[in-house]
Specification:
Rossmann fold; 10 helices; seven-stranded parallel sheet; alpha/beta
Length: 361
């Protein structure tokens, strides 16, 4: 059964520190450390207290976003079919209304959008490897499902849809950093599905009275991410393996560079995208703007856990991009956004969640 879970690229990478100096580092030892804060002052007050829908709200990114929306006082509804999302992720959000249903059902999606001002469309069938194995289902959920969300939002009088796109749309075209004006040349069926869904969003903003913003996520990681899934991203897999003294699996030579982005940064970008008057119809990168190699990532995690990061190398996987990190100037220009949590702080915040979820029951 396909998922409505929030998605992101299946391979990760982490940022170095900004040239402007280190980002603030949240307390890595605080339980339930991820909580959205208004202290940045960057969220438009007029957007608070509205009725919102989070598709894929039981998934990793979606549940973090739903928590932030509840915390700031919004009336939150979640749509998920829980095939890869998890009800546990919503256990601390009794205020949220949960609707179980498929993205591929227009009727179910339309029912979920009634009375909603903004839809945060995080629902998708994630993972590049899964899309290589089953491109048909990936396309059906990610493209048809997104079209259903847009049609339902249009028909229900929703003001704006904020869509979770992916860095995988860039493929290997050109040289990093990837910027929004670069040509899209996705390699994997997952990347193709995200690009098609993204273009539907832009089209709807041009031909209907529906505002859209597409956010291209780069390698998101953080709490509520499942390290036990066969499609788990690299950071949770590396953390759980290194913590247990096991070698990590590296596909390719480990020199491929990525732009790992902590989930709190992504949540804040979503909140700003829902309110920004200048962002309608835009496609915007959400990342840190700093690359690192997979080998460097293993070393950083090993240092944080005070363990040796041993590696086992495997052949490259079909569909993987060699190097991908982002330019984030447009996010700053249109949203007033910049990443607040760097790689090491993000990993420290996520470690407890990863180890807890990977422990035997």
């Amino acid at each position: 059964m396909p998922s409505n879970r929030a998605s992101g690229p299946c391979t990760d990478s982490f940022p170095a520190q900004s040239d402007r100096g280190p980002h603030p580092r949240p307390d890595p030892h605080r339980r339930n450390a991820f909580r959205y804060s208004h202290r940045s002052g960057r969220t438009a007050p007029s957007s608070v207290g509205m009725k919102v829908l989070v598709t894929g709200g039981g998934g990793f990114i979606g549940s973090n976003l739903a928590a932030a929306l509840v915390e700031r006082g919004d009336d939150v509804r979640v749509l998920d079919n829980f095939s890869t999302g998890n009800r546990v992720n919503l256990a601390r959000l009794p205020e949220a209304e949960v609707v179980e249903g498929e993205l591929r059902s227009y009727e179910r999606v339309h029912a979920a959008t009634r009375g909603v001002e903004v839809v945060f469309h995080q629902g998708a069938l994630p993972s590049v490897p899964r899309s290589v194995q089953d491109p048909l289902t990936t396309g059906a959920v990610n493209v048809e499902g997104t079209l259903n969300v847009l049609l339902a939002a249009r028909d229900a009088g929703v003001r704006r849809v904020v869509f979770a796109s992916s860095s995988s749309v860039y493929g290997n075209s050109g040289m990093p950093p990837r910027v929004e004006t670069d040509p899209a040349d996705p390699i994997s069926p997952y990347g193709v599905s995200k690009l098609a869904a993204e273009r539907y969003c832009v089209s709807f903003s041009r031909v209907y009275e529906l505002e859209t913003v597409a956010l291209r996520y780069f390698n998101v990681f953080g709490p509520n991410q499942d390290p036990t899934s066969q499609y788990s991203a690299v950071i949770p897999r590396f953390v759980t393996a290194i913590a247990r003294g096991l070698p990590v699996s590296v596909y390719g030579d480990g020199g491929q560079r990525r732009d790992f982005t902590y989930v709190q940064n992504v949540v804040e970008a979503n909140l700003l995208a829902a309110a920004s008057e200048r962002a309608n119809g835009a496609v915007i990168n959400v990342a840190t703007g700093r690359p690192t190699s997979v080998n460097e990532l293993a070393d950083v995690i090993g240092k944080l856990l005070d363990r040796q990061a041993e590696r086992v190398y495997h052949p490259e996987r079909a569909g993987d991009v060699r190097d991908s990190w982002a330019g984030v100037e447009l996010a700053h220009e249109l949203l007033g956004w910049s990443p607040a949590v760097d790689l090491e702080a993000g990993i420290e915040l996520a470690v407890e969640s990863y180890l807890h979820r990977s422990s035997p029951a």
